[in-house]
Amino acid sequence: MRVIVSGATGFLGNRLCAFLQENGHEVIGLGRNVDKGRHLEARGTRFVSVDVSASPSESMLKKLGHADVFVHAAGLSSAWGSRATFLQANVAGTRHALTMARAAGVRRFVFISSPSVTFRFSDQADLREDTHLPIPVNAYAESKQIAERDVLAASDLSPIILRPRAIYGRGDVALLPRLIRAAEKGPLPFLRGGRASTNLTYVDDVVRGIVCAMDAPQEIAGRTYNIAGDEALPLRLIIESAAARAGIKVRWRAIPWPLALGAARLAEAVALLRPDKPEPVMTAYALGTLAFTQTLDISAAQREIGFKPQIRFEQGLHRTFGGGLTP
Fold first, then answer.
1. Cα–Cα distance between 146 and 155 in angstroms, integer?
2. Angle at the Cα of 101 (from 133 to 203), degrees rounded to 5?
3. In the chain, which end has fewer C-beta atoms inside a 10 angstrom radius, N or C?
4. pLDDT tens for each residue of 204-229
């Protein structure tokens, strides 16, 4: 199978390219990081330096050639940023990826979205894919909601949308490293009695989900699937376990939820007034992920495309840190 992977120089895309290459597929990796692109080429992946947020040229489209599947894993993922930046990266970028996929004549377009599209400031356990989408919590979630609609409208590409929850693993620079840095700086907010839980998903399990979507029958087209580990873990356990691997003892400070949210909103407002609009120490969205349970029902992916997570948290944590103190 010939597969095009956008975001190939990112955490997930890089791992996906390696897996596909190891399993006999021909892979074309798209990305902006030329140095990481050289590493991909050394493994046998054909690398094309491209920013998918920019409109593709005719010459670039011809360079891609024919492919069977397009996996769109590129995008901007952050709790903070301007709306225009998110729309360019995640909405325009997805539309350009759809254009590339059509030019390559693919039979299946797999879009990596985000569970943030379903986020609410309330406990949500075992969320299903058909849950009514709320007003977006931030510009990132808004951009992913719009991109999902665009992908589903591309029925000619037999699209499938995946929403992987909290991807982690060795090489991740966002999830666990970010939590560890926050714990190192000072006490973390202890909210609503520390009862929030979530799923984590080891990166190799996300790759398995993508492969399941690639191989799914045509009648599955147009569906959206949650991808996650099958453990609902207390956030306190996740943070303390990761920090312990880094040799850090987590300190907690109990703060009433309304007070914490008000402080985060104020910090966001102040940041927006500054010329450089720096990310606040704690955004309202990030605070909400610490305060409320957000777990996913993965039964549809298990039943319809054969997805089965294999890496449990303790095993994934060991693989992430590899016996060392940093992921």
1. 16
2. 60
3. N
4. 999 999 999 999 999 999 999 999 99
